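Chapter summary example.
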Amino acid sequence: MNRYKVIVVVVFCVSISTTPGLLSAEVAWPAQTRQCRPWTYNWWLGSAVDKNNLARELTRYRKCGLGGIHIVPIYGAKGAEKRYIDYLSPKWMEMLSFAVKKAGKLDLGVDMTTGTGWCFGGPHISRNQGCRQVRVKAMDFPRNGTLKPGQAPGDVLAVVAVGPGEKSIDITDKYRAGLASYKPRPGQKLVVLSARPTGRAVKRAAPGGAGPMIDPFSRASMEAYLKPFTAAFGAPGAARPRAMYHDSFEYSANWTAEVLDEFHLRRGYKLQDRLAAFAGMGNPDHVARVKSDYRETLSDLLIDKSFKPWFSWCRRRGILTRDQAHGSPANLIDIYAQADIPETEMFSRGNRNPLRSKFEPGCFTAGDRDILVSKFASSAAHLAGRKLTSSETCTWMAEHFCETLEEAKCFVDLLLAAGVNHVFYHGTAYSPDDAAWPGWLFYAATEMNPRNPIWRDAPALNAYITRCQSVLQAGTCDNDVLLYWPIHDLWHNPAGMAINCTVHNAASWLRGQPVGATARGLWQRGHSFDYVSDRLLEKVSVKGTGLVIGGSRYRAIVLPPVRHIPVATMKKLVELAQAGATVICQDQLPSDVPGMADLETRRQQLKALLAGASDKIRVGKIEPLLARAGIQRETMTDQAGVMFIRRQIDGGRYYFIANQSARVLDTIPLSARAKSVAVMDPMTGRIGLARCKPVNGRIDVPAHIEPGHSIILRTLETGSPNLPPFQFVCAGARSVDIAGPWRVKFLAGGPVLPKDYRMDKPASWTANGDKATKSFAGTALYTTTFDAPAGTGPWVLDLGKVCHSARVRLNGQAVGTALMNPYRLALPKLRPTGNCLEIEITNLAANRIADLDRQKVRWRFFHDINFVNIGYKPFDASNWPVFDSGLIGPVKLLAK
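The structure predicted for these 896 residues follows.
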């Protein structure tokens, strides 16, 4: 039940219509293209697809309100082996071509992974072209001049002798001759650099796609990988997807054969000359500098070398690229920025109860759901001038078959607030119609498919996302601050080798760093920002007192507490400050340079730059310095859990505002100066004029946004649109129960339709005494009649507790679909007597799945990982409780 104070919103506004005169032309939902609608990962198990089932599935996807699919071939279903199609075979390309053409006719788009499962790799990649790991080890000299097996696994690349107070002596040639000719001095150690293939294979590969993952740092390996794609997509009539996709960096690699040469070229000295430091020997600062140079070299290889052939291959064929850069050891911003569509992800919900499927404040920022991580992808898009930022969305957001549309909506809101405007559900498994319920499934997904009961009311969620994304794809980003990411401070660490920045370890690479604290502070205090890298900072220019890059404008650059900064970066910051830009260093100026080469020379250069910029760069606390520069924060975030993102458009701004706090948001103060504000409800599509209050040159918008809910505001700098007022009405004492009796009829679902029944007041259908209701997953219709209470209304229908979504009709007229707690809908005018109220309630699949497991029905029949629970243990729902389902109530009419 809702724990919060009962307050009711009644909205008087117009509906979106194509009828002339209903809406001012300047305040309407932007055009809602397929790119605005949510897309979905579409797993092809065993690539066992056929044209008839593909056509049926695609038609269902479009009818539900999706905008496109992302084809991911993976392992197959047991028993369907004869249907399997080898990846990139002529038959597979025929199925792709059919999917692309059929989707186009349905106004759907098609993307695909450049490969199967994840990551890049396959049967044509040799073990030596695959992932490699480096090892550097200090040891005593072997007495017989020969290392024991395992002491230097793999290929030995370099060997040095290191002694107390002595420089390293390269004895690689002597080592290869057996060390017989080298006599070690007392106290000398042997330091050996070696590398070996890891044998890491493509995960969850489809037939025809199994094999080693590529060496992700090697251009040659990437070029070899793309050869079969060149042949397949060069065939006459070959289909072209809209975009090709690369999944997050899950290669077990930190080395490639090119590292030593590239290190020398880029860092200015040979790694072999600092091998002792690379092994962790000596002064910790020197060790950290060598490790930093090694990490920067890996980053450079990923950005400048290895993935460029993939981007070029796609673009030459008119195909876009979607890339998940996270997980890599590189500068994430720079890799994301190379893609046409940078893609982020959020995963699961941390350690919260996996069976809980209800919004509660705070549960949408737990675990691996961190807006500050997702902002790396949207920042790169904004700085590179990309229109779209995509996301792998709702990945295993709860236990299988326990995911609600309410939770999906709140999950999506996090991503929208992070700057994502092109969500991909994770996702939807293709399944043929002859597969028994629940059909073919993917083990790590929110089962957003036509066989899951939640699919029935998913069109309401998809319409919500479509409206939001139509707004967030319009105009340009409207963030104030560029927050410098001091990646060299992260890399300056004497421990370990590569530092991979994943969504799962952000506590170490982001939240545990000073920049993470600064980012969190800016976010919580309502300062909108994008991250900026050293490379992209070079592209920033000054226009007036503002900053311009990628078509976006910013008002200040903020440096968190930084220690190591490249000379070139500091020089650029000084130039920007001298040109009139606001450059702020939080608490302190940078104090050192990264890396090892020419260290003292570069230190002196940095010192000179800092001395010359002392009157231009501002140092101190961020917020007062931003305020001094005239940059106002959005104070709505003073209510913890309220989040926003802005877009700049001609004549004003859009604000997307989500309330994931524990209480109602009743006033929205805006920093924007405006003549008027329109309120746009993305859940219903309605638009009305806000009753704004000017406060010291700013605007306060009276509102009523329940926990978990959201709204869009459109500010207008001139004039006022011809719209009715958007009225927020709070309920007082008027509350009237709709007592019943109620008739219940089961409409759709299974395993069988329970018998119709009557009840005096709403209650879970699992408690009606019919055994069939305890295993039922689907939809039931609740019907009652009532007379209008005394008074004029307007009336709001409050359904009380709903498990888990509701479609409402009054006197045969559709009222709306309710997905969120509190389940309330504004009602049209009531008849004096005999009002017929019909409520279709759809529950989750959990009870039906649990019943299958209790009966030991074989429905988990997949190769590879088969089917596991959210804890990666074998899935078994036989011990689940019976979940409440249906209309629980109480059902009330509410008004003033």
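To summarize the output: The two ends are 22 Å apart (CA to CA).
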